[in-house]
Every structure is written in C-alpha cells, then in structure tokens.
C-alpha cells in the first residue's frame, strides 16, 4: 500500500501534471472573479467564502479524470486487481494520494488567495480548517466518480456531471463554516457535519469504488 | 408465483402484455376523474383563488419524482444482489419518467409561485433539493447511455444510484440548513392536522393514485421497449455472425 502511495505521489510530482495544474487553476480563478464582478472590497468580501470553496472544488475536479484512466491505459490497473491488495485498499490509497497532491496544497494556498478576495481576517482560520476537514470528502468522492467512468472514452465531461452533484453537501457546509466564522457566529454545527461527511466518505466510498472498478474490469 | 420468476424476460413480457392495457385504462380513468373533479368541482381557496387548482398536478408529480428514485434504489439493490435482469431494466426505464416528473413539479411550482409568492423561483430548501434531485437523475441517465456493455452499465448505474441516494438525502438536509423556506409544509401526511381541507384532499388523492398508476404504466411500457431493443440487438448480432 505504501509502495502504491509513493508511486502515485512520485508520478504526480515528477510528471508535472495534476499537482501544479490544480493550484494554478485555483490562482487563476481567484484572479478572474474580481475582474468579473469588480474590485470593491464590500462586494468581494461576502462572496469570498463561496468563491474560495467553489474554486477548491473545481480544482479538485480537474485532476480526477487522470486518476484511474492512466492506470487503465498502461495496464497497471489489471496488475492492481490481481495483486494481494484488495481493490478497496487500492481505492483508499489512490484517494489519499489525490488528497495529498490536491486537497492539502489547496488548503495551504487558500490562505494567501483569500487576501485577493478580501476575506475577513477572523474567517481565515476557519477557511483553512474547513478546507482541511472537507477536502478529503472531495477526494474520496472523486475517486469513486473516476472509477465509474474509467472505461469510457469521453469520460471527463460525464465525470463532472456525476461528481459535482455529489459535492453539494460538502460545499454547503464548508462555505457555511467560513461564512459563520467571518461573522463571528458559532461554527460548531456545520463543522461537525462537514467532518461527519468526510469520515463517512472515508468509511464507505472505498467499497463503492472497489465495486465500480470490478464491474469495469470484468 | 414469485418475483424471481419474472427475471426471465419471456415470462415478464407475457405478464406485462396482459397487465399493461388495464394499467393504462386505470391510469387514464383515475387521472381524468381526479383532474376533472379537482379543476371543475372544487371551491376556490379563499386566499389563493383559482391558482390553487394547480395542486392537482403539482403534488402528484412531486410525489412521483421522489418515489421514482426510491423505486430505482430498490430495483438497483435487487439487481446487485440477485442479478434480476428485468429489475435493472426497470430502474433504467424509471429514470427519464422521474426526471420529467421533477421538471413538471418545478414548472408547475414556478407557475403557481408567481401569483402567490410574487416570484417564479426562490432558493427555498424544497425547491433547491428538487433541482438537485433533477441533477442526480441527469447524471444517472447520462451514465446509462454512455456505457455500451449492458451488464456493466447496469452494475455501475446501480452503484451510482446507491451512493447518489445517500448524497441526495444529505443535500436535502444541507439545503434546509442553508436557507429558510417559503414553501408550505406537508399537504398529504398521515397526520390529519397538517393536511389540506377535505374538499381539496379527496380529488387530490384520486389524481395522486392516477399518477402512480400512470407511472407504473410508463415504466412497464419502457421496460418492454428496452427488452425488445435488446432482443433486436441480439438478433442483428446473430445475423451478422451467420
């Protein structure tokens, strides 16, 4: 499992693919929003939590279609399926690798980007915390969606249609944590639900992903 | 007679051919009675006037839209556990009907919302979760049509349906958490106190039954079409090989 994780991380870092791309996309999005709606701080500050969460979600989505597709193309997915490691374990490792190369960097880079959008200072820690708690759910859901569409030729468009509705609860509670944090309200309820969604995804989705991969490999 | 016998498409075709005309007849009769009664023989509501009559389409279509997904969940489970082929096809057949019913519920709601709330659309939890339900239907149908191999498509869409159910329900509560609503509460719950008044309730129940039977007829019809399409496909393949 560790070998698989290290291989995935190495591929992500050296092939120069998803790792930089997702972050670059996030930066571009945070730049384009003020250009589109105007530079006034009183206009940007209220929508900043939503934009930052939406950007993280879309950046996550970008790197998903390569997640299983590359392995399916060069045949290493078949090797994974025949290896002693169950596919559920492989799914967990893949999702973890995706989170380490996408979710975690996004969480880190969100703090400087929030300055561009005039996010209130007291909301900043909650932005980082909510992204850290919520992005695992995005990675695990994305791994599941990518497993569903792995056999398809034009899977990436379908993938976003399948995965984005699944992201809705995470987005709602994540952005709510930041909004409440910015207004100085209690964030305990949405944060707890966000954590529950992430933990539920961690517990259940590897099985769904494994089943989807098995159906695709048959 | 058991459910499992009808995993054989020929048995299913024989039974559904016998049942389908009766189902259509009953659906048309119930809808005609319920809608006519509702439109022409009920008093006007003292606050809403004429516009209350749209309830006889709005509520049944919303009811079907939700329960079609529930039916897909059950049939998907039956397919995953017992490899009941007709069950997988029934799930596929129900999805577009559910999507149309979602659209009908949203549209009639918009038409009703304009005179009552002064707006076609409001980000009310119920409206929002219906829109999200529509998105789930879209993804499900798109996945079905994207995969060529039939059993594989049935497997993958069933898994999507199971996961999608969890997240559709979660989205419903997320939407409730996120915004307060304009929409009234339950109009059909078993708790008598919450219901609409009896004059409106009786025709509503009749048209609701009509929509349920109509849904049944449409799903049977679409399942039969799908079985025939498969048979045709198999025959053309056999011809090509010969």
From TrEMBL, chain A:
Belongs to the CcmB/CycW/HelB family. This is Heme exporter protein B. Its main location: membrane. Required for the export of heme to the periplasm for the biogenesis of c-type cytochromes. Keywords: Cell inner membrane, Cell membrane, Cytochrome c-type biogenesis, Membrane, Transmembrane, Transmembrane helix, Transport. The chain crosses the membrane at residues 12-37, 43-64, 99-120, 126-150, 157-175, 187-213. The lineage of its organism: Bacteria, Pseudomonadati, Pseudomonadota, Alphaproteobacteria, Rhodobacterales. The keyword Membrane applies. InterPro entries: Cyt_c_biogenesis_CcmB, Cyt_c_CcmB_bac. It is a multi-pass membrane protein. It is found in: Cell inner membrane.
TrEMBL record, chain B:
The keyword Transport applies. Pfam families: Cytochrom_C_asm. It is found in: Cell inner membrane; Membrane. Residues 4-183 form the Cytochrome c assembly protein domain. The chain crosses the membrane at residues 12-35, 55-81, 93-112, 127-147, 159-179, 199-221. It is a multi-pass membrane protein. The keyword Cell inner membrane applies. Keywords: Cell inner membrane, Cell membrane, Cytochrome c-type biogenesis, Membrane, Transmembrane, Transmembrane helix, Transport. Its main location: membrane. Belongs to the CcmC/CycZ/HelC family. Required for the export of heme to the periplasm for the biogenesis of c-type cytochromes. This is Heme exporter protein C. The gene is ccmC.
């Amino acid at each position: 499992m560790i070998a698989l994780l290290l291989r995935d991380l190495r591929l992500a870092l050296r092939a120069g693919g998803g790792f930089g791309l997702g972050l670059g996309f996030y930066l571009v999005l945070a730049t384009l929003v003020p250009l589109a709606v105007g530079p006034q701080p009183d206009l940007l500050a209220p929508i900043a939590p939503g934009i930052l969460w939406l950007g993280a979600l879309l950046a996550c989505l970008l790197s998903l279609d390569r997640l299983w597709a590359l392995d399916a193309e060069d045949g290493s997915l078949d090797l994974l399926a025949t290896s002693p490691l169950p596919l559920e374990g492989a799914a967990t490792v893949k999702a973890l690798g995706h989170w380490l190369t996408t979710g975690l960097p996004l969480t880190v880079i969100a703090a400087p980007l929030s300055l561009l959008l005039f996010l209130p200072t007291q909301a900043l820690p909650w932005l980082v915390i909510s992204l850290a708690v919520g992005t695992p759910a995005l990675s695990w859901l994305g791994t599941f969606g990518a497993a569903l569409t792995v056999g398809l030729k034009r899977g990436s468009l379908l993938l976003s249609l399948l995965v984005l509705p699944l992201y809705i609860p995470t987005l709602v509670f994540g952005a709510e944590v930041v909004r409440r944090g910015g207004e100085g309200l209690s964030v305990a309820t949405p944060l707890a639900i966000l954590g529950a969604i992430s933990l539920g995804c961690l517990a259940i989705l590897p099985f769904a992903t494994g089943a989807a991969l098995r159906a695709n490999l048959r | 007679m058991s459910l499992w016998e009808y995993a054989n498409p020929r048995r299913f075709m024989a039974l559904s051919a016998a049942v389908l005309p009766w189902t259509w007849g009953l659906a048309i009769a119930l809808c005609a009675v319920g809608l006519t009664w509702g439109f022409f023989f009920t008093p006007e509501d003292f606050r809403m006037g004429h516009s209350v009559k749209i309830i006889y389409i709005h509520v049944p279509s919303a009811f079907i839209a939700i329960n079609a997904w529930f039916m897909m969940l059950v049939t998907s489970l039956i397919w995953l556990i017992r490899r009941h082929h007709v069950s997988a096809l029934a799930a596929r057949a129900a999805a577009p009907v559910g999507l149309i019913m979602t659209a009908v519920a949203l549209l009639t709601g918009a038409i009703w919302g304009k005179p009552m709330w002064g707006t076609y659309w409001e980000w009310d939890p119920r409206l929002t979760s219906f829109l999200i339900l529509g998105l789930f239907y879209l993804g499900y149908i798109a996945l079905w049509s994207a995969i060529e191999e039939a059993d594989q498509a049935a497997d993958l869409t069933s898994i999507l349906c199971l996961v999608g159910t969890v997240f559709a329900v979660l989205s419903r509560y997320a939407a409730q958490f996120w915004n307060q609503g304009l929409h009234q509460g339950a109009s059909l719950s078993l708790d008598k106190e919450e219901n609409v008044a009896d004059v409106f309730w009786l025709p509503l129940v009749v048209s609701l039954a009509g929509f349920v039977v109509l849904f049944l007829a449409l799903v049977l019809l679409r399942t039969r079409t799908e079985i025939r399409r498969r048979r045709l496909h198999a025959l053309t393949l056999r011809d090509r090989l010969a």
